[in-house]
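Model it.
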Amino acid sequence: MIKVFSTLLIVIFFVCTCKGQKKKDDYINFLDVKYQATGFFIPDISNPYPTYTYSDKKIGILSVDFIGKKDETQYFWNPNNTKGYFSKSTNPENDAQNSKAIKDLIKEDDYYVVASYLPNKFITYTGGEDGEFEPKQNAKTTFYLYEKNKWKQIGEIETSKIPENILAFETNLIKKFQTSKNK
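Modeled.
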């Protein structure tokens, strides 16, 4: 009887340990420096912001966007801002790729940090050196907001339906999340 009981305890312990480990493995800290390997950059869009992207066949594709909480912070990255990041630039294209300079200017408290994540189960890699891929039919991208040292899911959408103006889309997700949180 004791042998059966101790075997049962070992099995329960093993099952619980494995379940806990799986949850830990599923968690992605999008701010981990390993995901910043390709560097920060400023995209060539009408209202730019700092971002970085990462792709790995094991986990999928992610991007992390730093959206200014105040208009002044957001406008800092606009090439037309005479007092902003590009104001003294002689080569805006190179400066838009200067990861260290961009990263050094980001004060995390001044930004909404939003991650978008497309898991590998929704991706077909088509080859090539650049890790070319296509989202599978009905692929879903999940959006997370970094708040109080935690990633909180703020939305999920079919990848093919993500609007072109990603800044407006992510800002809207943030507003909806904050409104629902304050109810």
